[in-house]
Amino acid sequence: MVDPANTPLGKMLLEEITPVVMVLRTPLVEEACQKNGLTFVQMLRPFCVFNNFDVPVRTASDQPYRLQKFRLRLFYDSDVRQPNLEVSKERLKQVITQAGEKDLSELCSELPQITNALSRSESEALPLWFQFFNKELVHTVSFSDHEAFDHPVACLVVVSSKDDQPINRFVDLFNSNKLPSLLNNGAMDPKILKHYLLVHDNQEGSSEKATKILSEMRSTFSSDCELLCINSSPDGVVEHQDNPWVLYSSEDLPSQPLRCFLNVDDFNEIKDLMQDFSSKHIIPYMEQKIRVLNQQVSATRKGFRNQIKNLWWRKGKEDVVDSPSGPTYTFSSIESQIRVLGDYAFMLRDYELALSNYRLISTDYKLDKAWKRFAGTQEMMGLAYFMLDQSRKEAESCMDTAFTYYLKYASSSQQNATRCGLWWVEMLKARYQYREAATVYFRVGAEEPLHSAVMLEQASYCYLLSKPPMLHKYGFHLVLSGDRYKKCDQIKHAIRTYRSAMSVYEGTTWSHIKDHVHFHIGQWYALLGLYDLAVSHMLEVLACSHQSKTMQELFLRDFLEIVQKTGKTFEVSKLQLPEINIPSLRVFFEDHRTYASSAAATVKERLWLSLEEEMVPSTSTARTNWLELQSKLIPKKYKESNVCVAGEAVKVDIEFKNPLQIPLLLSSVSLICELSASSDEMRSDANSSSVGLQNNDESTKLNHRDVDSENSLFSLSDVDFSLGGGETTVVQLTVTPREEGVLQIVGVKWKLSGFVVGFHNFDTSPVNMSGKQRQKANHPRSINLKFAVVKSLPKLEGVIHPLPKRAYAGDLRHLVLELKNQSEFSVKNLKMKISHPRFLNVGKRESLNAKFPACLEKKISQDSDIHSDSDVSHTVFLFPEDTTIQGETPLLWPLWFRAALPGNISLHISIYYEMGDISSAIRYRTLRMQYNLQVLPSLDVSFQISPCPSRLREFLVRMDVVNKTSSESFQVHQLSSVGHKWEISLLQPVDAIFRSQSLMAHQALSCFFLLKNRSKPSTSEDGTSACSPLLGSDVRLGTEGSCGPLFDIASSPLVDFHHCERLQQEISHKGDVNTVDFILISRPLKSDTYPVVSDPPHLFSHHACHCSTESTSPISWLVDGPRTVYHNFSASFCEINFHMTIYNSSDVTASVCIKTFNSTNNGDHLSDATPVQPATSSSNQDGWHDLPLVNDIRVTSDVLGPRTGKSSSVESVSPFIWSGSSSTKVKLEPVSRTEIPLQVCVFSPGTYDLSNYVLHWNLLLSNGDGLRSSGTCQGYPYFLTVLQSV
Q: Domain residues of the chain, as ranges?
């Protein structure tokens, strides 16, 4: 540590703990000094400081030392008293207030930066008025009776040479009745050093009279007399550039150059006077008194015997009841004399002598419970330790003890504790213990709020100066200080401390304390009338989503009140309420691409391009993207901008979010735009006009304009809306250019609660990306908000009605497409393409006014046509060539809708059209339409087909229908098979299958049908086939009265939708040629109780395509012959003839071998044969029922249960045998059949199962060189009954 005397505390002690001289003067003395604007004490004060003193001093020891610096403190007799507490507080308040007024300019500057604060030294960081305030605070405890360093050491008696009887005036001035209380109440020895001074004003005459009076004074008062001549300037008032009174006077003295009657000779005379007074009178007097007191103390208190005596005597005083302020000590008591000895030694820089006496007296005060005096000696011990630079721990301990006893035990000693704390703080700061010093500051300012504010602010700077800096504590103590400043109405100081604290919290996540600081700074600025600054800080706390609802309401309410007080509308850039999601900004404009709805504009561009690829004219054979395509269609002068059309709105979707829990009211929300109108060559500079915000700076004020003015180059939409707490909404704003030129969308503006205009400029600067960045699909790109406006063009508007938003699967409806063109120019060459032809199909023009569903009913007198019109295509629909749209007459065209499958479906329709009779940069346009609909499950229909064992080319069909809706009921109307070769019929009456007229929600239904293949297959004889004229067959699934007529499945739109379904379902059944299609038509009912068809009528069609009719074997056969025979066995055995028809359903040549076995050796033959594939299967039997054999109809191979075992005779001789050939081999061409004769010999009556035969089949390759597949089938059960004839 540096020399203690050169530290701030050392310098303070050299100024404050120095000898005091009491001044007694006559009024004429003051009159002579006032000619110079100074009092007598003020005139002498600059000359009481001696920095180059060099005076030898000898106190109690024999070894002298030299004083290099010395100082006297001069006070009038009236000032030698303890200051009034209330007056001192008011004085301190004035000091703080005046300091705040001087710092007013800093309050309007930019916020301080923490980096600047950290780079400053202690002297630069601390406000200058802190030091002055601390001194004033120390002076509040001056002239205490328990401390001798404030007691006058000498008395300077001053009389003017103009006074009458000057000698008597000297005597009268030191009258004991007029002396201060310290000299009269016994606190100090009234016999102090007296020095007599005669003042002569040279402006009043020569000094001869003064010299005579001086001689008389010396004869009366010995040699302690001096003469001082002042105002010696012969030329009148003299101006002195160097004013020596500036540094040693109160702040009420002028700081400008001094104008007075004092010349250089006067200055030197005053200086010599005070130096002689100090070196020849004050210091020798104090030396002498120290030596005398030291001898007395040594004789009475030092030594072991005296210490024991003192302790014994002190012990006897324990029973004495002390006064609340402690025992009273007079100046003659040994305790007071020891304290005087210590203080005198301290003032003469003999710190060791002072410390020894403080130690000696400290014990006595503690035993006497004189706590204030005890604390005072502990305080001086700590200072002595510091000045000796010894035992830091002891010094801090003494200061801590003194501070504690001042506060806890000594009554009315708060000011003494404050002074002790300030000296303690300086002691710690001198040793760079800033953190500990801050703690002491915090303890010092515990009582008085205003003083506490100053102490907390000083504590904050200690944390800043710590190593490392404790920034959080620095900011927090500044906030505490500012809060106390505000409570004491020191608003400017409160703002200053909060501004400094903001430098700590700026850029951090401490959102609550940042809100607190900004909010209160804003409030306090408003109290000072600085509304612009108040608003700027209140804006920082508006988007306080982390705060409670109550705090949010408070912040917003106070902000609006401040704005109202200004009496004007504030315009704020990037106003935080509401929040604007710039990345979600979406711009919708129409060039050659137009949109029927906002939903259509949100669809990805590549989807539209793929849909329009066949309609848009090709610019080259190579495939190009839409950017290249547009560049070829749009002239070069528009390439750097988007293109829009005059009179057509550019729409911008902006997402507004309310971050608060309270509602916000927004009004006059609109875009900020610029439009430069120009000639055909797009001259950007000449003759251009601009409307809107000039984007030069974010703080630029808005140019107010009438958005509805007809003279404006564009019109803007103006939206008012409110946002609930936490609500997010997307608002669409539009700008409609009226003239050709260049349109720039600059930003958006709005008005919050009718008082504050907020605006936000969009970033339209291009983003330069490297190659790797371009590969990232999610890299944010700036939106191009610059548009080249071309002249007005025709524009189609389209709508489909009544297209439902929700439908059930299979729902079939008749719709109408309506197209309008409001322009005076016509459009031509219309084309249309639909993304999902399964859902939407173009109808015939003549069906526009057809009544639905009557138009789909089957006409008895008219044959159906399975082909649709030539202009209906599943790719591009071409409107008739003569079709034009212009003016008020719309174009209506029929459409058919069918909900093909459940799910959320997006239908996209694009209509291409060309401009008619108009020259424009855009030669064609497209109308893009998009509809979202939800398709719910309705009827789930499935089919199972099995070959009929008793009939060739006949099949049993099982249809399962499940109603998967939650509340709807349906009436099953008809089932149709599609195609010329299929015929379907019922196996049971309709009443037996559909006993209820409705199929309710969650209900299931199973029914069976017979399916016949009506095409004539080729035989082995002719090898030709013929087609039946049937185009399909229908089965009514209800009575004619309840269901109505049948619907024609071979007419549009059913045939068109069925074609789409076949294409869709073809993939899973590819390669299967033996398939059949079914169409189930149903109608919804109003309710289950009253099963009446819904009104308006609805129709549902369910399509099942490519249902396979193939069995497990490509070979099927049928044994035909008698079932019952009568024969007389007494005459002979019975011979019965049969024939077997074999059918090859495959598309290749088949080789079939039939082997018959007798019943006795049946098992032997089967065991030698190839593993037999049963003719019947046990799979897929659920819901199937056996049919009576009397109808000659057998169920299919996978209908019957497992084949029963063959009956065996009890006898050893077989009852029948196959009498024909035991093995027959035939070859069948693809899809052909043949007949083979069979014969059985029966030897006795009975019922016989003629299934003991097998068929071995092989499918041959096309070249006949090998086998593709093979198999073996067991014969079907065939029961023959032979009876004995009569």
A: 4-104+152-285, 581-790, 796-858+867-935, 939-1108, 1115-1284
